[in-house]
Amino acid sequence: MNTQTASSDLRERVIDALRSVFDPEIPVNIYDLGLVYQLDVDAETGHVTIHMTLTAPGCPVAQTFPGTVEECVNDVEGVSAAHVELVWDPPWTRERMSEAALLQLGML
Known about the structure:
The chain contains three helices and three strands. It has a three-stranded mixed β-sheet, with helices on one face. Helix 2 links the parallel strand 2 and strand 3. It is globular and about 40 Å long. It comes from Paraburkholderia hiiakae. This is Fe-S protein maturation auxiliary factor SufT. InterPro entries: Fe-S_Maturation_MIP18, FSCA_dom_sf, MIP18-like, SUF_FeS_clus_asmbl-assoc.
């Protein structure tokens, strides 16, 4: 398997894992909710870096949620280390949500 294919496969497995993590206040996964702003996957080293936000800066899980996401991604086969960084710029808006998330919440 070439490096690009391996990277693409690992990236898809990481995205699948992110889709299994749900926002604590909205019944939609964090990926389709648009909370993941940047996803860097290095298939050679297995390192994954995620820049994500929360729906509101005052979210009660702001201290613990990055660790929850890291644990989930670390469980993906091929991942050796995951790092999640919370970012607040740009602020999250519903425009970041996928069409599937909008449909799920009856917003389309």
